[in-house]
Amino acid sequence: MGVAFIHPTANVEAGVVLGEDTRVWAWSHVCQGAVIGDHCIIGEGVYIGPHVHIGHRCKIQNHSLIYEGVEIADEVFIGPNVVTTNDEFPRALGEWRQRFRATHIGRGATVCANSTIVCGHTIGEHAFVGAGSVVTQDIKPGWIAFGNPAHHIRPVHPQPLEQPL
């Protein structure tokens, strides 16, 4: 049973739940109420918003932004510089929390580098979002999608993990 590791420069606020053997690396910020499962890797400079739920054995790569309203299931890979959103009509003023729309990323999904996930959509289990994509619709379970806007290309057959993360 391993203890979570928090790099000395990381900011993990009070009220965060970190699973065993989870690692939070340099300059990351995990906000109050976030729940991160066991055996996760939170890369350098990652932001995880309040009340975000991340499953077990997930990898969130460097400089990704996971905002409030996003739920990530087990065994999800989020590549570097991925941005999620939670406000469908962002403005500097006004009550923005009432505009939040939830985003769900299913078990075993992969979201590659520099992708943007527009709020209110679901990325299905074992789906694969290609690098630089902008997700503006639901992505079917087990499908490869990429582009701007991301569109379904073909089914992908998930391979089992050879070893745990």
Main sheet properties: 9 strands, mixed
Q: Classify the secondary structure makeup into a structural class.
A: mainly beta
CATH class: Mainly Beta
Query: Within the largest sheet, what's the order of strands?
Result: 1-4-7-10-13-16-19-21-22
Distance between the termini: 15 Å
Uncertain segments are: none
Number of helices: 0
Query: How would you sum up the global shape?
Result: globular
Number of strands: 22
Specify the CATH architecture.
3 Solenoid
Q: CATH homologous superfamily?
A: Hexapeptide repeat proteins
CATH topology tier name? UDP N-Acetylglucosamine Acyltransferase, domain 1
Number of domains: 1
Mean pLDDT: 93
Can you give the helix content as a percent range? under 10%
Order of helices and strands: EEEEEEEEEEEEEEEEEEEEEE
**What integer value in Å does the Rg equal?**
15 Å
Strand content: 25-35%
Would you give an account of this structure?
This protein is mainly beta and 165 residues long. It has one domain (5-155): 3 Solenoid (UDP N-Acetylglucosamine Acyltransferase, domain 1). It is 0% helix and 32% strand. It is built from no helices and 22 strands. Strand 21 (143-147) and strand 22 (150-155) form a beta hairpin. The model has no long low-confidence stretch (mean pLDDT 93).
